[in-house]
Specification:
The protein is of the alpha+beta class. It folds into 2 domains: 14-160, no CATH class; 169-582, YVTN repeat-like/Quinoprotein amine dehydrogenase (Methylamine Dehydrogenase, Chain H), CATH 2.130.10.10. Helix content is 20%, strand content 33%.
């Protein structure tokens, strides 16, 4: 008599290879995310890769799962229903700072990854065990998002996450500010007058990020930047205007958008003008984007909801105010009205844009004295840049760069002098036009065009334009550049670089500073980079090689705001802090 004892056998390990398709999807998605982070991709390209990749992954995985034969149809349908329901409930109960797209971009890739991983390790289990595991992992993968708050995105579109119960930087500022004594009423007896070395507005006197007449210390190891003050600030991406011993900026204070005047030596608050309005978006957060401009004793400030204020620089008293969105009929763009007012003669000029279905009034000029609307021009629908005063071929004019291209107008009348059409769908324009010589204009975007050098000619009253070169060697997103000694220094998709201004050829690319900002000291051939991580970095403005000379941590938190430099002092801020540092050259 023989006894046949049968031992149950597990499916051979090779059967796991039937999961090759979902595993391949994991490799392709995370490989693409990794590649766009470290290769030459712009922020827009990174976002589109992640968004389209996750949508494609989700659709293909769902189709594969529903035809997957190792679970019954009812089990497959149940798992997919639980996945959809968990995603919907997470969107409902997640912190209000999470947009739907942010929840999905963060959660779905994790869910699909752990789902596939569980199927791989549980292949020899029963159908019921595999199903229970799938359901548990689907739910568990979404739960962490319920405990998090999203404080916007980095320049590379990565979510900035904090615990939900942690107070935000804005809440900490408001609590601290409420405990501070109310400043004494400002007096008009103090005259606020621009002097040489001041920083009267966005990116300096000429809006080109170049400083003249300043010499700073270059040995930051022995003589690091000396802190004058460093304190919490309200949210916002405005830069700083410095006139004498006063600095001006804009920030969000709860439900009020504020124009703030501080003592440039101590950071003490001197006066505040507030408007009951608040702008917020899920990528950038709350607060104004534009930088105040100073002219003839007045401050001109443009808020993120379209409020244009003319204020007395000494007291903050309102001289006049306009709702430019009402004047132009323009809706608030995705990231808010972002222009910094440009004062030319007796005009203050801002870009508001226009509705897609109509030309409307996009570029508006108001009289400086009384605030009456002087002229308006159809100049595109959307832009995050500011009007730029230039002289080309001996003719003073104002340039504006929008989604429709580049337009030149007469600052006194608004008459269009010339245009260069350059339409690209869903591409933001945030970089100032730069003038080279007496007839060339440099424009740059983070698109297929990259940077373009434009030749202009003026003969017999007629203007013509022609591209001198195009180059993808510098693709700026919202990080402006500077032109010095025949070379362009700026950010190419978050990495600092130098490009020959004559040919568009790259000289070098180095310095992983994220999506920061910069300014250039012409007298010393130096660059001060303010990194996205809040470091100030000193770089030599030399085309032959990249050379970093020093660095110092000057702020905490994500930093997109442009730095300001006046009277050998560096003023920096972000959505959390504002600070001033002495950079004076050592005494011999």
């Amino acid at each position: 008599m023989t006894t046949d004892i049968s031992v149950p056998q597990s499916p051979p390990a090779a059967s796991r290879w039937r999961l090759w398709f979902p595993v391949l999807l994991i490799v392709l998605y995370w490989g693409a995310v990794y590649a766009t982070t470290f290769l030459d991709f712009g922020a827009r390209e990174r976002f589109m890769t992640r968004a389209l990749g996750f949508l494609l992954w989700m659709v293909l995985f769902s189709i594969w799962w529903m035809v997957h034969r190792h679970q019954s149809f009812a089990q497959r349908a149940l798992a997919l229903a639980v996945a959809v329901g968990a995603a919907v409930l997470t969107n409902v109960f997640a912190h209000k700072s999470f947009l739907v797209i942010a929840v999905m971009l963060t959660g779905v890739p994790i869910v699909l990854t752990v789902w596939t991983a569980w199927l791989f390790v549980s292949w020899n289990m029963s159908r019921q065990a595999r199903l229970v595991g799938v359901l548990c992992f689907i739910v568990a993968a979404w739960i962490p998002l319920l405990f998090l708050r999203m404080d916007g995105l980095t320049g590379d579109t990565a979510a900035v996450l904090h615990w939900r119960w942690e107070p935000s930087a804005e809440e900490l500022f408001l609590a601290q500010h409420a405990r501070q004594p109310v400043p004494a009423a400002a007096t008009a007896a103090v005259k606020v007058v621009e002097t040489p070395g001041d920083w009267p507005g966005f990116r300096g006197p000429d809006r080109d990020g170049i400083v003249h007449g300043t010499h700073i210390s270059t040995d930051w190891s022995a003589h690091p930047p000396k802190q004058l003050f460093r304190q919490r600030a309200g949210a916002g991406w405005s830069s700083i205007c410095v006139i004498g011993s006063r600095l001006f900026t804009q920030e969000q204070r709860g439900d009020a958008e504020a124009v703030v005047c501080l003592d440039a030596n101590t950071g003490q608050e001197l006066w505040v003008h507030s408007d009951s309005t608040r702008f917020w978006d899920g990528q950038s957060g709350a607060g104004p984007r534009g930088t105040p401009s100073f002219a003839n004793g007045r401050i001109y400030a443009f808020g993120a909801t379209g409020k244009l204020n003319c204020l007395d620089a000494a007291t903050g008293a309102v001289v006049w105010s306009h709702d430019t969105a009402a004047d132009s009929g323009a809706p608030a763009p995705m990231w808010g009205f972002s222009a910094s007012p440009l004062v030319v003669g007796n005009r203050v000029i801002v870009f508001t844009g226009a509705r897609r279905e109509e030309e409307g009034r996009a570029l508006l000029a108001y009289g400086c004295e009384k605030g009456e609307l002087a002229w308006s021009v159809a100049a595109g629908h959307q832009s995050y840049g500011s009007a730029q005063a230039v002289t080309l071929n001996g003719v003073p004019q104002v340039l504006s760069f929008s989604d429709e291209g580049l337009i030149s107008v007469d600052p006194a009348t608004g008459k269009t002098l010339w245009k260069r059409d350059d339409k690209e769908l869903m591409v933001w324009r945030a970089i100032q036009p730069h003038v080279l010589g007496d007839s060339k204009v440099l424009i740059t975007t983070e698109t297929n065009n990259g940077t373009v050098l434009l030749n202009t000619t003026h003969s017999g009253g007629a203007w013509t334009t022609k591209d001198a070169w195009r180059s993808r060697n510098l693709k700026a997103s919202f990080n402006d550049c500077a032109v010095f000694d025949g070379n362009i220094y700026g950010f190419d998709s978050g990495i600092f670089c130098c490009v020959d201004a004559t040919t568009g050829e790259r000289r070098w690319k180095d310095g992983h500073y994220g999506h920061g900002q910069m300014l250039l000291l012409a007298d010393q051939a130096l660059i001060v980079v303010l990194t996205e991580q809040g470091e100030a970095v000193l770089v030599a403005a030399k085309p032959d090689k990249f050379s970093e000379l020093g660095r110092a941590q000057v702020l905490d938190g994500k930093t997109w705001n442009h730095p300001a430099l006046a009277h050998d002092r560096l003023y920096v801020r972000n959505a959390e802090e504002i600070a001033g540092y002495e950079l004076s050259e050592e005494k011999k």
